[in-house]
Amino acid sequence: MGDITYAILGTGALGGFYGAKLQKAGNEVHFLLKSDYLEVSQNGLVIESKDGDFTLPQVLAYSDVEKMPSCDVVIVALKTTQNHLLPHILPPVIKDDGVVLVLQNGLGIEEEISQIVGNVRIIGGLCFLCSNKVAPGHIRHLDYGQITLGEYKSNYQPTGITEKMQQIAEDFQNAGISIELAEDLLLGRWKKLVWNIPYNGLSVILNARTDELMADVHTRQLVEQLMYEVALGAKSTGRVIPESFIHTMLSYTIKMKPYRTSMKIDFDESRPLEVEAIFGNSLRKAETAGVNLPQIRSLYQQLKFLDTRIIRKQGTGNREQGTGNR
Ligand SMILES: NC(=O)C1=CN([C@@H]2O[C@H](COP(=O)(O)OP(=O)(O)OC[C@H]3O[C@@H](n4cnc5c(N)ncnc54)[C@H](OP(=O)(O)O)[C@@H]3O)[C@@H](O)[C@H]2O)C=CC1
Ligand SMILES: CC(C)(CO)C(=O)C(=O)O
User: Fold this and answer.
1) Is the C-beta atom of 34 inside 6 A of ligand 1?
2) Which residues form the Ketopantoate reductase N-terminal domain (predicted)?
3) Which residue among 112, 150, 215, 246 is least crowded, i.e. fewest CB within 10 A of its CB?
4) Which is the closest atom of ligand 2 to the Cα of 210?
5) Is residue 319 scored above 80 in pLDDT?
6) Model ipTM value
């Protein structure tokens, strides 16, 4: 059994998948759940994966962080729309010398987390994963799975490859999860947004899968324009995304199985959208540097309209951070 203990905050499509792989490889993993708590505490987790199905009949399941032990690595795998819960649920589960590993999509989340637990190390992970939760405690892993890890330092100064990143990478690799180490977390986050901003946004607004967006000449052009605008955003924070990376993302998506993005799945299920973490924070970072990103802003405005409608229907609040009135 590995020496590092893990807590998973949010045992859904992503947290359930990676957490189960870590446990299967012999690591001690503690899973925080909400609506699936009873099912998972009684019957464990079922993972259907293109790399091989498996079940974990018994897992350490919790519905309350106060009952969890403090762990060496706390994996944040909630939707960012739930991040307002972090000041309450993060401090009880993290050891003083622990690491918070943020596996969510978006920008600036590590900065927000450093305001909550400023004394511990924070590592960000960019997950190239296609996974869905299909029933309580039942995860379907469709494709990919690689994580790019980068450590956070205040103002996103590059940290290089740290020993902590290497230790965590070793556990993940032993669990069959492919890991890449990044010297500069902020660059890694912008690169992930090159994909998420066009595809997540347009899939919702145009009601389309990735293959449909790539098959039409007009939307393909729009995707590409948005990718270049993300690169402008990155440049405004001193990070250079080479043109070749944009071409790689375009051809990667053409080869990808027809895919409904995670934001489209949330929209179809009438769940709040991760608009602020992905779009709002990117706009704000660029704006702080005096750079306007008009096409991304237009997506943001349309998504806010749709998100507000969902929230009104549900009568719940999307408490994602951000001013919400860009
Ligand atoms: N799925 C994927 O393939 C990928 C996801 N990501 C990112 O990963 C993050 C997580 O996404 P994903 O796993 O898909 O989302 P899911 O909705 O599948 O998982 C989030 C989980 O958090 C749980 N949760 C919510 N509130 C609480 C709470 N108060 N206490 C305990 N658990 C709670 C939810 O439980 P309940 O269902 O009961 O509300 C849910 O199971 C997002 O930022 C997403 O963008 C990034 C790349 C790929
Ligand atoms: C890039 C992709 C498809 C998988 O990592 C994703 O992040 C998403 O659907 O939100």
Assistant:
1) yes
2) 6-153
3) 215
4) 3
5) no
6) 0.98
